[in-house]
Amino acid sequence: MNNNDLVNKMTEYMSKYSDASFSHWINYELFTWQWWLCVFLCTVPLFIWWKVVEKKRLFEIMIFGLLVNITCSYLDVIGTSFALWQYKIKIVPCVPLFFPIDYTVIPVTYMILYQMFSKWKSFIIAVIITSLVFSFIGEPLDVWAGMYVMKRWNYIYSLPIYILIAIVCKATVIWFIKKNRG
């Protein structure tokens, strides 16, 4: 089989997968209680964050949150691409990521921690506690709710990743701030 034939075959499979995925979303995901929970998790944290965010530091905190969001999304794409885990409920059919977690829950939680704990020691302690909650309470609840399926993954693997995301993103923002000030 030459390259063009292989690309055509892959395109055909992707088209069939896309059709089946959309059909599944319409018939088994859309408007389920899990779907509504995802909608809730995509909106409510943002309203809470807007109420508590320091408006004077809005740009800095948002840059931190954006870095967290990008990092989470990127890692999620890697994990789902390698079939380490999968999501059974999506807000929209064309987004394979767990949108509420990557775009609101983790970034909003970490932005609040970033704002509250300016000293590294207290920030790291808060991030470790939060990462324990994400890994050993949040993820098992997502599994229990039938929204998240671990294929070749374990809750303990997530713990250092959650911690590193926050630390690396904070260090990056601080580095940019220092570079910007000259």
Q: What is the N-to-C order of secondary-structure elements (H for helix, E for strand)?
A: HHHEHHEH
Task: Flag low-confidence runs.
Answer: none
Helical stretch count?
A: 6
Structural class determined from secondary elements? mainly alpha
**Tally of separate domains:** 2
Strand content: under 5%
Largest sheet: 2 strands, antiparallel
Task: Note the overall shape.
Answer: globular
Radius of gyration, in angstroms, nearest whole number = 19 Å
Mean pLDDT: 94
Determine the N-to-C terminus distance: 57 Å
How are strands sequenced across the largest beta sheet? 1-2
Task: Please provide the count of β strands.
Answer: 2
Query: Helical proportion?
Result: over 70%
Can you describe this structure?
This protein is mainly alpha-helical and 182 residues long. The protein folds into 2 domains: 1-30; 33-181, no CATH class. The chain is 77% helix and 3% strand. It has a two-stranded antiparallel ribbon. Helix 5 (120-144) runs antiparallel to helix 6. The protein is globular, with a radius of gyration of 19 Å. The chain starts with a helix and ends with a helix. The model has no long low-confidence stretch (mean pLDDT 94).
